[in-house]
Structures are given as C-alpha cells and as structure tokens.
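Throughout our pipeline, every protein is held as a single compact record rather than as scattered files. The record that follows is passed on verbatim for readers who wish to inspect the format:
___
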Amino acid sequence: MRDASDNREEWHMHLSPASIFAGLVAFVLLLFIIELSLMAYTPVLEFLPGYRTQAGRERESIVKNILRLDSMERMLTDMMTYNENISMILEGKMPVVRTLASSDSLRTRKMLVMRSSEDSLLRAQMESDGPYSLAGINAPRTNIRRTMELAMPIEGIITDRFDIKQGNFGLRIAAAAAAPVTAIDEGTVVISNWTPETGYTIEVQHPNSLLSIYRHLSQSLVKRGQIIRSGELIGYNAEVKDGELQLFEFELWNSGKPVDPEGYIVF
C-alpha cells in the first residue's frame, strides 16, 4: 500500500493468533523432518549414548566372536604343530615349522627346520650310552608297577619297614582290631589258611609276577582259587587277645623276590 502524504510504498504485516499458531506448527514440523532425515540417512545415532541400534550391537558382537575364533584356530594350529614336531623328533625325522600367510591367518606354509651343530651334539648324547642316554631312561621295566595302581591293604601306622638285612621282608602295621583288609589289586587267591603263629594268612597272585601276602588276620573271607578284584574285602585284622594286639604283616614279592611295598603303594 502507499502512503497518502508522499505516495511511498509501505509494508504492513497483520499478525493474528491463528497466524502465529500456524507459524509455530510449521517450524516444529520443519525441525521434525530435519531430525528424521538425520537419523535415517546419517550415522549420528552411533555417537549418541543410549541410542545405539540392536543391529549395531549384534554386528559388533559378531566381529568380536570372529576375532576370538581366529585366535583359537591359530592356537590350535600351533598346538598341532608342536605335537607333530615332537613325534617327528622322536622318530628321528626333521621337524617342520609353520609360518602364517600374509593374506590369511589360518593358512600356513610348512618349512623344514634344518639340524644345527648343537642339535647334532644333543642327539649324539641322547643316543649314546652316557648319563643323558634315553636308552637307560626309557628302558622297559615290566616288573615295576605304577604306585597309584595298587590299593592300600589296611588303614594304620607303619611300625616296622622293609629291611632285608634285618629280616623284615615286608611291613608291620598297627591297625585297629578287626579292621577290614582289602586286596591291593585283582588276582587269584593261592593260599588261605590258619596257623597258631600267624593266624589267618592269605596270599594273592597278581598280574606281572606280583604276589601279596597278608598275615595275622582274625578271619578270612576268601578261599583258594577264588578270583578277586582290586580293593575287595578279603578278611579282618587280628583282634585283641590277653590285652595285646598282633601287628598286621604285609609282604610284596615280585618274580620270587621280596620288594619294598612302599615303592608300590602309598601308605
């Protein structure tokens, strides 16, 4: 419109409550559209705490699991290589070293490890008859049983130990009266009798030419020719007579010779 006095153009804006409300609604709608576009088409949510999407968390978990699996595969490969090399060394062959390929951490290249002068000297010492010889260490010892294979015959305290020079061919053990006596290993009963001097005596023939003898029992629960299992109850310790308790005697013979039971059994 023009001013009546000087004919200049003038601009006027008439604001009503309805126009103000419409302007605010339009501004809020514009902000909503901008925010929605940022969230939908930009990774801005990744930088806001508490707004990470479930897909993003799952993707990160998958990446971590892949890295862990790769590390486990490499460790397994190293262990297999170590075991293979030990087997090859024992067989007198050349060990193999595996080197990881640059493109794939699971693909390896094999390369022979050539013998050094130190390795040759060590092999000569181990294969000779000297103090470091493997022949003496690994020689078969068929008559010796592993300690933990045999069970303890009775619970008690050892009073006299094995000493051939003193005439002790076994152990004397102070145990409770009528305590249970068990077989140290599977075998066959060859003797089960009673004498005034030793009470009930039981002898059991075990594998590998091993013979166990149990003396001063008050009762025998086995008979000659009976096959028994390791740890099976075979009798009971002597009872108190005239105020005295006879010590339980246990002997172990190997190939017809007395041996120290403590070298075979943990008492």
About this structure: The first helix runs from residue 17 to 41.
